[in-house]
Specification:
alpha+beta; D-Maltodextrin-Binding Protein, domain 2; 2 domains; seven-stranded mixed sheet; four-stranded antiparallel sheet; 12 helices; 13 strands; 17% strand
């Protein structure tokens, strides 16, 4: 047998061994997640699923990345921003991704909301405008909109990578709950105008707090900020308006809100109706996925695909996509997941171009 043929046979054997190795070590970060992992392992054994699951504890998601890279763990479920870090910094990949509609892997769209009466607004000309953000360091309220503004050359960040200063210099005033918290402002130098659209609680206290005591906190709070004319634009999920209308939110500001009062601002400078979020958004944020070493994509997928057939849509007994019996939510997988999709391409293909671009805008922070 010549050299190329021997090499091909060797690689083929390696692939078959990798795909048929019968032990998968799952990395967990909490007591509740560990218990669910152990229950999955026991139920998988009882159902004779090919492959044995074992569970290992880590201090954090970052610790799980380290364990997977060095081989002391094989898989862990991670959010989209952690998937980016795992791929970019550790060379890891995805075996499966979650689907919440059974069709694709998009979790939600981040949109820019404005009042219909604001006729001179454009996402490409936001300088000195006022903005409403659900919170500091959130995907919806910070990563996506600020990444978008950097990528469209509206915001420039200095050599110290001081994003809060750049954002404060750019907007006239904003509400970014938590931006003055010691955790996010240890030197107490973050701009004060990033809290000037915040209103605090009913007693005018807790202004700019990173919790619901600030009435402009969270996505409903950001929507309220625009509805009450304290901001020109709110950065929220595409579903935020609909989640707060038709009696779903009893507060007075939401009761009087009409769909025709609001519009979407599109990345190309145009505007659109609220239902046009699939064509008018700053980023499509992907669902969670299971991170693995590249050579383990096959065997982890095979195990999980079998597991979801047996435990994915059950009404009794162990449920892969329900964590309520453990007193917590979203353990191992997001509750309410409809299906686990095989990720054929790279982790970048799962994250998608719009979300990857906004994450890359923060690369100066030294991700790795």
């Amino acid at each position: 047998m010549d050299h190329p043929a021997r090499k091909f046979l060797f690689l083929l054997v390696l692939a078959r061994v990798s795909c048929h190795d019968n032990t998968i070590t799952w990395c967990v970060v909490s007591d509740a997640e560990e218990q669910k992992c152990l229950d999955l392992a026991g139920n998988a054994t009882m159902k004779n699923i090919f492959g044995r699951l074992q569970c290992t504890r880590a201090y954090s998601t970052l610790d799980c990345m380290e364990k997977i890279k060095n081989g002391t763990a094989d898989a862990a479920s991670m959010r989209a921003d952690d998937i980016y870090s795992a791929g970019w910094c550790y060379g890891l990949e995805l075996a499966v991704g979650e689907s919440y509609n059974g069709v694709d892997g998009i979790s939600y769209y981040v949109v820019a909301l404005a009042r219909t009466s604001s006729s001179d607004l454009s996402l490409l000309e936001m300088h000195e405008r006022s903005s409403c953000h659900p919170g500091i360091q959130t995907t919806v309220g910070w990563t996506v909109p600020i990444g978008f503004l950097v990528n469209t050359s509206q915001i420039s960040v200095d050599e110290q990578c001081n994003f809060p200063k750049a954002v404060g210099d750019f907007f006239g005033y904003s509400c970014v709950p938590g931006v003055k918290d010691p955790e996010h402002d240890p030197r107490r130098k973050n701009p004060k105008n990033l809290c000037e659209a915040c209103i605090g609680d009913d007693n005018d206290r807790n202004i700019c707090a990173n919790n619901p005591s600030e009435r402009h906190f969270g996505e409903a709070g950001a929507l309220r900020c625009v509805a009450e004319n304290l901001g020109d634009v709110a950065f929220v999920k595409h579903s935020t308006v609909f989640d707060n209308m038709n009696g779903k939110n009893p507060e007075s500001w939401a009761k009087d809100l009409e769909l025709e009062d609001l519009k979407l601002l599109c990345p190309d400078g145009t505007e659109a109706g609220l239902s046009e979020h699939k064509n008018c958004h700053m980023a499509a944020v992907p669902a969670n996925g299971v991170v693995v070493r590249p050579e383990d994509k096959c065997r982890v997928y095979k195990f999980l695909n079998k597991a979801q057939r047996l435990f994915g849509n059950v009404t009794q007994g162990f449920s892969l996509f329900d964590s309520s019996v453990y007193g917590d939510t979203d353990l191992m997988f997001t509750d309410g997941t409809q299906k686990l999709l095989k990720v054929v391409g790279s982790y970048m293909s799962w994250l998608g171009p719009s979300y990857t671009r906004v994450l890359q805008a923060f690369d100066c922070e030294g991700l790795c």
